[in-house]
Amino acid sequence: MKIIDRNGRLFGKISVIDVLVILVVAVMAAALYFKNNQAHTGTAVNERLITFQIRARGVDDYVADAVLVGDSIYDQSYSSGGRALGEITDVQIERDPGAKLADKLTDGTVALLEAEDTVDLLITVEGWGLVTDGRYSINRVYDLGINSSRSYFTTRADFTGTVCDILD
Questions:
Q1: Statement to judge: residues 63 and 96 lie in one domain
Q2: Four-CA torsion 98, 101, 103, 104, nearest 10 degrees
Q3: Are residues 57 and 34 in the same domain?
Q4: Do residues 148 and 163 make contact, with C-beta atoms less than 8 angstroms apart?
Q5: What are 35-75's pLDDT values in tens digits?
Q6: What angle do CA 40, 130, 57 make, to 5 degrees?
């Protein structure tokens, strides 16, 4: 039995042209698969740890007590890629709730007074993101900028804060 008969069929069953068409389609399908499943960036992109601080002013005592080290922090209004912005690594009380500003103003000056039972917090957060030309992006989609006021939340607390520093 011949491999190719006089009608041009392999083993008398399938045409050589049909085999060539199947091979071309298979090569095109493989090329399309590899093209769509490669990384879309021309260079390797490495995320790095970004540490930033959020200042929350006038936070009620019960909310301040609920902001804990180790909690994940999220943004209510802006997309962060479906993941947390980072993990809280430190919480500091900046204004002592026991000190009254009015008691310190004995020279006739006027200032805004703090609301009772509130504190100011300085929250340090570590998150993974990209640093490109001085711009910081957490989770590759959340732009981080100093003086941006946002509504943040953890599993236990909601508060408004302002990014006051990005530590390198």
A1: yes
A2: 120
A3: no
A4: yes
A5: 877 765 556 667 889 999 999 988 888 999 999 999 999 98
A6: 140
**Residue 65 shares a structural domain with residue 13:** no
Mean pLDDT of the chain: 82
**Domain assignment of residue 10, given as a range:** 1-38
Tell me the per-residue pLDDT of 79-123, one tens digit each, with 9 for 90 and over.
Answer: 776 789 999 999 998 875 555 555 555 666 655 556 677 888 999
The answer as to whether 43 is a domain residue is no
Both 68 and 33 in one domain: the answer is no
Count of domains for the chain: 2
Is pTM beyond 0.70? Reply is no
Q: Which residue has the tokens 């698969």?
A: 33
Residues 6+ apart with CB under 8 A from 118: 58, 59, 60, 61, 97
